[in-house]
Design goal:
The structure holds 2 protein chains of 2 kinds. Chain A contains 13 helices and 14 strands. Chain A is an alpha+beta fold. The longest helix of chain A has about 45 residues. The two termini of chain A are about 25 Å apart. Chain B has one domain: 3-Layer(aba) Sandwich (Rossmann fold). The chains are: A alpha+beta, B alpha/beta. Chains A and B meet through helix 10, helix 11 and helix 13 of A and helix 2 and helix 3 of B.
Chain lengths: ~400, ~250
C-alpha cells in the first residue's frame, strides 16, 4: 500500500477520537513544554551570570598576596603582605598589560552631617576606572597627584550617595564626608554598575591608596597592597600578561628557582568559565527532570495505542481478511503513534516558547529558548513515538485474522 | 479453479487432537455456484477459513486459480486474499465510521492503484448492487440488507477469482435474504464463481451444487434438484458481463 494512504488512514482514526488523541498528546505537550521552559530559564540565567561577571571588567586579572606560613601552618591565601606599590609600577610597564591599579579595602563608617553609613572603602590609583572600564557620573576620579600627595579626596558610588544624601541622583561634588572620622572632600561620583552576585558594586567609596595607607593602616601593612587589579590589552593577551607578571613579580620578590610563588594570579575568564559551567549543570539538571515527564508522556502513548489496538481488533481482522499485509498494519499504527508524539512535540514547543516568556516576566529573570533544545525535543518526541509505538503496532500486525474477526 | 486433495486440519487442544478437516477432496470449477452445508462441528467453518486463505491446513493440497496455497507465506496469503478472494461475512464486517464508498474501496487500497481509479471502480461496484444513492452513507445509516450489498460490492472490487460467502443471510430478514440470493444468482449468471457456506437448506437451494460436510469430510456432493430462483432487483448485469469478458 501507498505510504500516503497509510498516513490518511492513520489521521482519520486519530480524528475519529479527537479527545483521546488530545489527551494522549498532552503528556508529550507537557513534557516538551517543560523541557523548553526549564532549559530557557537555565540559559537565561547563564546569560545574566555571564553579563554580570563581564561587568566586573573585561580582560580583568587580579593578583593577591600568597599565604603566610608560620611554623608550617598556612594562614590562607592573601594573608601575606608581599605585594608592594613597586610591583604595581613594574606591572604597568609590561607589554601585554593595559593598566594596573592597586587596591586596599576595608569597611569603615562614612558620615555627613546627621547621616552615616557603613561601606566598603577602597584605596586605589588613577588607573582604577580604566581597569574596571567604569565611567564617571560626575566630577573626576582620583588622579596620580592625589596618590602621590596623599590628598584627602573621595569618589562615591551611587548607592552610597543615596545612603548619605537621601537621594542617589544628588550631586555631592564639593561636599565633605567623614571616613572613620577623617574628613574627605567628594570630587566625583561613579556611574551605576549594578549588583554583581551578592555585592552591590555601587555601595563603595574610593580614596587615593597612599591616603588609605597613611590614615587607616599601621605597622607592617603600611607598605603592602591587598590586591592588584590588572587589565590585559586584549582577551588574547591575558595568558601572555599572566606569564609576564609572574616573571616580573618573582624577580621583584627575589624568589629562587625552588621557591614557590608568594602571590596568586586569578583570571576572570576562568571565573567566568566556572560560573558558566555551574549554570550549565543547572540547565542540564532542570532539562533532565523535564525529560522524565517526556518519557512518561511516551509511556502514555504506548498505553493508549495498546488500548486502541485491542479496541479495534475487529477492524484489524477485517483489514487483514481483505488483504492488508502485516507491514500495512504496522505502518498504520506506527504512524498514529508518531503523529501523536510529533504533533504533541510541536504544540509543546509553541507552549514552551510562550511559557518561557511569561515565566521569565513573572520571575523577573530573562529567558532564552535555545534552538538546539527545540530541535532536540522534537526529534526526541518523534523517537519516543517510534519506540513506544512499535510494541502496539507489532501487536496489531501479528493478530490472527480469524480470531480478530470473531472478536466482539 | 479450486482443487483440494486429502486436506487435513488438526487442532491440538491440550492432549486431545481435534481433526477439524479429515481428508477433504473437492474440486470447484469456474462459474460454479456451490453451497457448503453441514451441522455445526462438521468442519464447514474450518473449510471456509482454509478456502479463504485465513487459515493454513495441516496437510494436503490446495490449488487456487493455479496458486499453491500451502506453500505461500503469510505475506503471499495476504496478497491471495486481496486479489483472488472476495469475502462476504454473516455480520457484514464493514468498517464503522467509514462511508459505503470507502468501505468498497478498501481492497484496492491494499492492492495499489491511483485514487481516481479506486473511486471509479468502487462507484461502479456500488452501482452494480444498486446502492449508488447510498454511496456516502455510513454502515449505521444503512439497513442490514444494504450493508450486505455494500459487502458484496467490496468483494467484487478486485475482480476476485472466487466469492466466498459465510452465512451471508444469517443476520437478515427473509425479504433481504431473498434479495441477496438474487444478487448472487445474477452475479453467477454473469460468470462469477461463488461458494456459500450455510446451514439453511432454502439458501442452498438457490445454488447449483450442494456439498455436505460431516465429521470433517465431504459426505455428499450433488447438483441442486428443484433449484429456486430468487426474486430481486434486476442488476442489469449485461454490461458487467461484457466488462468481465473484456478483462479476461
Amino acid at each position: 500500500m501507498n505510504i500516503f494512504e497509510s498516513f490518511r488512514i492513520s489521521f482519520r482514526s486519530l480524528l475519529a477520537n479527537k479527545l483521546r488523541s488530545f489527551l494522549t498528546m498532552l503528556g508529550i505537550i507537557i513534557g516538551v513544554g517543560a523541557v523548553i521552559i526549564m532549559v530557557s530559564i537555565g540559559e537565561g540565567t547563564n546569560q545574566v551570570v555571564t553579563q554580570q561577571i563581564q561587568s566586573l571588567g573585561s580582560n580583568l586579572i587580579t593578583i593577591s598576596p600568597g599565604a603566610v606560613s608560620s611554623g608550617g601552618v598556612s594562614q590562607g591565601s592573601g594573608s601575606a603582605q608581599t605585594l608592594k606599590m613597586a610591583d604595581v609600577d613594574s606591572i604597568n610597564q609590561l607589554d601585554a598589560v593595559a593598566a594596573a591599579a592597586p587596591s586596599y579595602q576595608g569597611r569603615y563608617q562614612v558620615a555627613v552631617a546627621g547621616k552615616n553609613t557603613n561601606t566598603t572603602v577602597t584605596g586605589t590609583s588613577a588607573n582604577f576606572t580604566q581597569v574596571k572600564s567604569w565611567p564617571m557620573l560626575s566630577g573626576r576620579f582620583i588622579t596620580d597627584d592625589d596618590v602621590t600627595n596623599g590628598t584627602k579626596v573621595a569618589v562615591l558610588g551611587t548607592t552610597t550617595v543615596g545612603n548619605l544624601f537621601g537621594n542617589s541622583n544628588y550631586d555631592p561634588v564639593g561636599q565633605m564626608v567623614k571616613i572613620n572620622n577623617v574628613p574627605f572632600t567628594v570630587v566625583g561620583v561613579l556611574s551605576s554598575k549594578g549588583a554583581s552576585g551578592f555585592q552591590d558594586q555601587d555601595d563603595a567609596v574610593y580614596i587615593p591608596i597612599n591616603t588609605y595607607r597613611s590614615r587607616f593602616l599601621g605597622g607592617k601593612s603600611r607598605d603592602s597592597i591587598q590586591q592588584i587589579l590588572v587589565e590585559a590589552k586584549s582577551a588574547d593577551q591575558i595568558n601572555q600578561a599572566i606569564n609576564e607578571m609572574e616573571f616580573t613579580l618573582r624577580q621583584n620578590h627575589k624568589l629562587g628557582f625552588t621557591k614557590p610563588d608568594d602571590f596568586s594570579i586569578r583570571n576572570f575568564a576562568d571565573i567566568l568559565a566556572s560560573a558558566q559551567a555551574s549554570t550549565q549543570t543547572m540547565t542540564l539538571f532542570l532539562g533532565g527532570v523535564a525529560a522524565i515527564s517526556l518519557l512518561v508522556g511516551g509511556i502514555g502513548i504506548m498505553n493508549i495505542m495498546l488500548v486502541s489496538v485491542t479496541e479495534r481488533t475487529r477492524e484489524i481482522g477485517i483489514r487483514k481478511a481483505i488483504g492488508a499485509k502485516e507491514r500495512d498494519l504496522l505502518f498504520q499504527f506506527l504512524i498514529e503513534a508518531v503523529t501523536l508524539a510529533v504533533l504533541g512535540g510541536a504544540v509543546g514547543v509553541a507552549i514552551g516558547y510562550i511559557g518561557s516568556g511569561n515565566i521569565g516576566n513573572l520571575m523577573h529573570t530573562p529567558t532564552s529558548v535555545p534552538l538546539n533544545a527545540v530541535v532536540l525535543s522534537v526529534v526526541f518526541s518523534a523517537a519516543i513515538g517510534i519506540i513506544f509505538g512499535v510494541v502496539p503496532a507489532r501487536k496489531a500486525s501479528k493478530l490472527d485474522p480469524i480470531e480478530a474477526l470473531r472478536y466482539e | 479453479m479450486i482443487r483440494i486433495e486429502n486436506l487435513r486440519k488438526t487442532y491440538a487442544t491440550g492432549d486431545v487432537e481435534v481433526h477439524a478437516l479429515n481428508g477433504v477432496n473437492l474440486v470447484i470449477d469456474e462459474h460454479e455456484f456451490v453451497a457448503i452445508m453441514g451441522p455445526s462441528g462438521s468442519g464447514k467453518s474450518t473449510m471456509m477459513n482454509v478456502l479463504g486463505c485465513l487459515d493454513k491446513p495441516t496437510s494436503g493440497t490446495y490449488i487456487l486459480d493455479g496458486i499453491d496455497v500451502i506453500a505461500a507465506s503469510q505475506n503471499q496469503l495476504s496478497e491471495i486474499r486481496n486479489r483472488k478472494i472476495g469475502f462476504i461475512f454473516q455480520s457484514f464486517n464493514l468498517l464503522k465510521r467509514t462511508t459505503a464508498l470507502e468501505n468498497v474501496e478498501l481492497p484496492m487500497l491494499y492492492a495499489g492503484g491511483s485514487a481516481k481509479q479506486r473511486h471509479e471502480k468502487a462507484a461502479y461496484c456500488l452501482e452494480l448492487v444498486g446502492l449508488t444513492d447510498r454511496m456516502h452513507h455510513k454502515p449505521n445509516e444503512l439497513s442490514g440488507g444494504q450493508q450486505q450489498r455494500v459487502a458484496i460490492a467490496r468483494a467484487l472490487m478486485n475482480d476476485p477469482a472466487i466469492i466466498l460467502a459465510d452465512e451471508p443471510t444469517g443476520n437478515l430478514d427473509t425479504k433481504s435474504s431473498v434479495e441477496i440470493m438474487s444478487i448472487f444468482q445474477q452475479l453467477n449468471d454473469a460468470g462469477h464463481t461463488i461458494v456459500v457456506v450455510t446451514h439453511e437448506p432454502e439458501i442452498a437451494q438457490h445454488t447449483k451444487r450442494s456439498v455436505w460436510f460431516r465429521d470433517g469430510s465431504v459426505s455428499s456432493d450433488e447438483p441442486v434438484a428443484e433449484r429456486r430462483f430468487a426474486e430481486g432487483p434486476d442488476l442489469q448485469l449485461t454490461r458487467h458481463q461484457e466488462r468481465k469478458g473484456e478483462g479476461a
